[in-house]
Amino acid sequence: MEKLAVIVPYRNREEHLKVFMPYMEKSLTEEKVPFDIFIIEQHDDKPFNRAKLLNVGFSEAKEYDYFAFHDVDMLPVDSDYSFPDGPTHLSSEVEQFNWGLPYDGYFGGVTLFDKESFVKINGYPNEYWGWGAEDDDVIHRCMIMDVDTYRKACRYRSLNHERNIDRFEYNQNLTKLYEFQNSDSPKTFIENDGISSLTYERISSENLSDRTKLIRVKL
Prior knowledge:
Blueprint: E1 4-10, H1 14-30, E2 35-42, H2 50-60, E3 66-70, E4 74-78, E5 88-94, E6 110-114, H3 115-120, H4 134-144, E7 150-158, H5 167-181, H6 186-192, E8 201-207, E9 212-218
Helix pairs in contact: 4-5
């Protein structure tokens, strides 16, 4: 049976992690999905880089068969973590979005990827610093590389937290996304930025439980 790696990008969310870890371990055990959880902590002073942390998680767990790229503030109420047909968005009914999507085409929060599809699109981009646009980038990668995407009707509770968005960084990310989406050679963008160009420094790792490992990195 295929084994799942749950990849969680993380920094300064101790209270969320205390809730998320036992909840996810219990939920996936009850679902009878073989799994391990990897908490990838950004241990530097740079702006948070969710997408690059997801690439790091893939690099650290690439012997697994498929991956759940999973925000720490989302708890499954009614979901399905079985092996997907292709990249599959799970968090389609989310409490903080009034049990819906924040916008059409949303591909963030919780997304399953099989290994073959993730390698084909060269993973997530590494150069989206701060909040926003990396999930729109990755679904565009799927389109450019002829990788079909899917969505399941799955429900998630939300853990509350403040969202401090740096508008300058956000606008820079939107500019990068626009350039990619309107490029005459989008495959060049994909080839030049992703798991093939990933660099990071592994600081430490520790087992938080039998199923959950915390890996600290500098980006």
